[in-house]
Amino acid sequence: MLNIEKSVHYYNYAQQYLMMPKAVEEYLTVHDVSLGACKLYMHLRDRYRLSLKSVIEGNDKYEDELGVFCIYPIEDLVEIMGKNEKTVRRWYNELKKCDLIHYRGTATC
């Protein structure tokens, strides 16, 4: 069994990667989700993980009556993915169709 020390070095190293749980990867494969949508999911999941960490540390900025959420403007996703808005929205809709993500509306903060 691999024992990884939770050090600053490990934390910084781990931040260099996007993560995809095996169960989600299998689910996306079964539902024939495109590779671009999978990559988008990893970016959204990474942002959600940061929101969750913030809430655990006592900051309720990313939590409401429905639970923890993340904010990721479409413009930022377009830039980070290197694709046009239409493509990113198509991938986003693929993920919504699979019930992996839910859109709550425009953020006010």
Helix content: 40-55%
Strand numbers in spatial order across the main sheet: 1-2
- Following the backbone from N to C, one meets helices and strands in this order, namely HHHEEHH
Global morphology: globular
Structural class: mainly alpha
What is the number of helices? 5
> Main beta sheet, described?
2 strands, antiparallel
Mean pLDDT: 81
Question: Quaternary arrangement of the chains shown?
Answer: single chain
> pLDDT under 50 segments (min length 5)?
6-11
According to DSSP, the number of beta strands is: 2
Instruction: Estimate the strand proportion.
Output: under 5%
Give Rg in angstroms.
15 Å
The first-to-last residue Cα distance is: 44 Å
Describe the fold and architecture:
By secondary structure, this protein is mainly alpha-helical. It has a domain at 26-97. Helices cover 54% and strands 4% of the residues. The protein contains five helices and two strands, in the order αααββαα. Strands 1-2 form a two-stranded antiparallel sheet.
